[in-house]
Amino acid sequence: MSTTTVDDRITAYSPLVATTEFAADFAVFDNADLIVIHDGVKRTDFTVSATYVEGIATDAKAIFSPGIIGEVLVVGARSPRRVSRFTNGAPIPTWQQNLVADILTAQAQERQRDLDRAVLVPVGSAGYAIEAGIDEGKLLVMGAGGRVEGGPSYEGVTEAVSDAQNAAAAAALSEQQALQHKSDAQGFSVAAANSAVAAASSQGQAQNLVNAAQAAYVGFQPGTFYDLGRVTDSLELFPSDLGRVSDI
């Protein structure tokens, strides 16, 4: 491994067909130094194959059976520990010195990788304290005194957002309907005005007809005789001879 080049000690794969072997492109010093993240979930059902030469393996690989597909990360995750100690006064082979330096460098690279993923406060600021016992699914909120506490649940927030969106959509629909009602009312007002104009016009026309009729009617003029014909009556009051009445 390189002791001068930055290495995050992660090898990524995205197989589209079932794959059983995933090699690490970094050196390992123990089979337990490897973990595998598959589609965001840590897997433990794999074995490690590696050939160690002077305490270092550069051909380590994780083996699954059966094969897997998806997003696969082979990650270096060595727990900081010391597995050997030099004897005072004894000669120290170069490879052993290099092995110790390589292990320390690998652990430092992994710590730096994880540190880069951490949420940091500004330099010189006090760190945050996280409240214990935060329920799963709760969002984190900043409390008093720089204390990180459990807030509302993610589901609650998404439901509130959905309700707000539905309310906004209903309000927009109501506004649209109100505008339509206003437009309809304006149309009715125009129609009523037109009807009033038409009624006034009809009234004027009727008055004109009355005036014309009055102008055309002359009536019976004084001192003038009119032949109205005659009326015949076929009713006989006394159809037979009733005789005569004698004075007594």
Description:
With 248 residues, the chain is of the alpha+beta class. It has a domain at 10-83 and 94-121. 35% of the residues lie in helices and 19% in strands. The chain is built from 2 helices and 10 strands. The chain has a 4-stranded antiparallel sheet, with no helix packed on it. Strands 2-6-5 form a 3-stranded antiparallel sheet, with no helix packed on it. Strand 3 and strand 4 form a beta hairpin. The longest helix has 63 residues, at 154-216. It starts with 9 loop residues before the first strand and ends in a 32-residue tail after the last helix.
Q: Which band does the percent of strand residues land in? A: 15-25%
Rg, alpha carbons: 55 Å
The helical percent reads 25-40%
**Which structural class matches the secondary elements?**
alpha+beta
Query: Which regions contain 5 or more consecutive residues with pLDDT less than 50?
Result: none
Using brief descriptors, characterize the structure shown:
alpha+beta; four-stranded antiparallel sheet; three-stranded antiparallel sheet; 10 strands; rod-shaped
Record the SSE blueprint:
Layout: E1 10-13, E2 19-23, E3 34-38, E4 41-43, E5 47-49, E6 61-68, E7 72-76, H1 94-116, E8 129-130, E9 138-142, E10 147-153, H2 154-216
Parallel strand pairs: 8-10
Antiparallel strand pairs: 1-7, 2-6, 3-4, 3-7, 5-6, 9-10
Brief write-up:
This protein is an alpha+beta fold and 248 residues long.
